[in-house]
Amino acid sequence: MLTEAPLSLAYRVTPTGLYLISTAYEGKRNVQFAFRALGLSDDPPLLAIGIQDGNFSREMIQKSGEFVVNVCSENQLHAVNRSRDLSGRNVEDKFVALGLETLPAKQVRAPLVAGCHANVECRVVQEVKAGELFLFIGQALAAHIDDQLAPVGRLAGNHAQPDPSARPAARSAVFSGLQSHRLGCLSRRGGAGESQQARASRTPSRAG
Ligand SMILES: Cc1cc2nc3c(=O)[nH]c(=O)nc-3n(C[C@H](O)[C@H](O)[C@H](O)COP(=O)(O)O)c2cc1C
Question: pLDDT tens-digit profile of 35-64?
Fold first, then answer.
């Protein structure tokens, strides 16, 4: 049954994926989780990411003009809760702090996160300020895909782990876990495994 939901949930009703955005500038590297990422066009190959104004990653992207969109598989889920309220400003190397392995990129300085479904190296071609968020449009310079590692889906703050029996070609099967969500569950915050403490400490502007 279709029911009215609060407007504060409106931006969470679109199913998305789980991404790690990696950056590098003048010898410092950083990484942050994001669910706001979208492929926009084929030719030129464009992707958009939404990064909060206060994030260290926003500064790194603006200074370097580059970023990598790493499309998470279940291999990166262990780092989600650890990443909450952890900024690259306060740690020497956030990849190490989050236990994420890296690989060198081909066209940009920011590293690829190892063990992802895909990694897309991007150069910023446009930025738009939208409220407290910067929308960065990046042109893909190189893309890497591992069909053996299915991407993770995300809806309303919950993630869906890939169905291991799904064939790589049937990517929509990855979202089978999300299809069971009813609108009522949009008021629930956080995915399975999220700690009470993490849920309580999270503010809407930093919500994942
Ligand atoms: C699952 C998840 C999804 C998130 N999605 C976004 C997002 O799309 N955009 C964003 O700016 N922050 C998002 N965040 C919050 C950032 O990851 C968080 O603010 C991070 O600490 C910023 O790190 P930095 O200061 O090192 O850049 C998300 C967090 C989680 C856990």
Answer: 999 999 999 999 999 999 999 999 999 999
Alpha carbons 66 and 197: distance in angstroms, whole number: 34
Read off the pLDDT of each residue in 179-188 and give the average, rounded to a whole number: 33
Calpha distance 157→14 (Å, rounded)? 11
Helix (H, G, I), strand (E, B), or coil: what is residue 157?
Answer: coil
Q: How far is the CA of 207 from the centre of ligand 1 (A)?
A: 7
Band of residue 161 on the pLDDT scale cut at 50, 70, 90: low
Q: State whether 62 and 162 are in the same domain.
A: no
pTM of the shown model: 0.84
Sign of CA dihedral 20, 76, 11, 90: negative
Are residue 37 and residue 95 in the same domain, yes or no? yes
Pocket test for ligand 1, best of 20, 28, 32, 47 (most atoms within 8 A of CB): 32
Single-letter code of the amino acid located at 9: L
Same-domain pairing of 112 and 187 = no
Q: Using alpha carbons, select from 192, 202, 205, 181 the residue that is nearest to residue 14.
A: 181
